[in-house]
Amino acid sequence: MTTPPTSDDRAPDAPATPPATTSPTSDDRTSDAPATPPAATPPAATATAAARAQGSSAQAATHRARAHSFNAAAAQYAANRPSYPPALFDALEELTGRPLEGARVVDVGAGTGLATARLHERGADVIAVEPGAGMAAEFRRTLPGVPVVRGNGNALPLAGHSAALLTYAQSWHWTDPALAVPEALRVLRPGGALALWWNTEALDVPWIAESARRVDRHFAGLNLSAEKRNFDARFADPTGTLDFVHREIRWSRRVPLDIHLANLGSHSVFLTDTEERAAAFFAEERRHLLAVFPDGLVEETYDVHLLLGTTPPA
């Protein structure tokens, strides 16, 4: 996962410039006439501005907490999250016009290495970038032969024009695209590609849609459905610098109910929920799902949304 730095995280490039000292003029000195008082800001406008600032600050704090929550649950994430289907990597080769074998690939926000492992299996010369200490430690346990460096997509710790392909598996939404897109263009070679993808729930499957509605009700103030559906090019790159192609790939896996629930519990909204609320939700969710899957084996169906943008050739 790649976590965007905020104004609280970034150090300023230079100390603040002190205000200029102005010599007094006839306009600065007191005159016989009383000064005109400044116009007062209406109380309602002041209250509205304060509420907006408070809401923005709270939203940023929540975002940071969710982004960092994975480090304490890295083992749970690695053991229960779904991987990605072979058809996704076939699509990468088709859209880039090049095989993954031998290609220099950088997997950013690599987490515990779910996507990195698949890229490595396809013969890519892959290096991982991961900001979280807990996730990076789990990555090293899982993939000891693949290099991983600490960093994030907003400031990649990589040389310019050093990669043929940059991948973000389930992680681009933790970046600031205004920073991450220029960084991707800096690191990619001419004609290189930026690939972003997400496993998403197949909401046309009735039991999955019902489960998603229960999650939405549990987190009524977060609008999770909207979060999970922002996969167009404007979301990926609001500047419009890259021209993205979109592919959708359906796949499924069959897992024990305990793994399904642990997968759901490894999402940031549950990792930052209270233990009591989360336990109550999962007890009720288990009851609902056993009614659908009495044998305790859950058929999870996913749609992988892939966005791929290519840089201009030399």
3D structure, described in words:
The chain has 314 residues and is α/β, with parallel strands linked by helices. It has helices spanning 43-68, 74-80, 86-96, 114-121, 133-142, 177-187, 206-218, 224-227, 233-236, 257-265, 268-271, 275-292; strands spanning 104-108, 125-130, 148-150, 163-169, 188-201, 244-256, 297-310. It is built from 12 helices and 7 strands. It is globular. Mean pLDDT is 83; it is low at 1-35.
Would you kindly provide a brief summary of this structure?
This protein is an alpha/beta fold and 314 residues long. 40% of the residues lie in helices and 20% in strands. It is globular.
Summarize the amount of helix as a percent range.
25-40%
How many angstroms does the end-to-end distance come to?
A: 31 Å
Number of strands: 7
Q: What percentage of amino acids are in beta strands?
A: 15-25%
Order of helices and strands: HHHEHEHEEHEHHHEHHHE
Name the descriptors.
314 residues; alpha/beta; seven-stranded mixed β-sheet; 12 helices; 40% helix; globular; disordered N terminus
Write the topology of this structure:
Blueprint (H helix, E strand, L loop, with lengths): L42 H26 L5 H7 L5 H11 L7 E5 L5 H8 L3 E6 L2 H10 L5 E3 L12 E7 L7 H11 E14 L4 H13 L5 H4 L5 H4 L7 E13 H9 L2 H4 L3 H18 L4 E14 L4
Helix pairs in contact: 2-10, 7-12
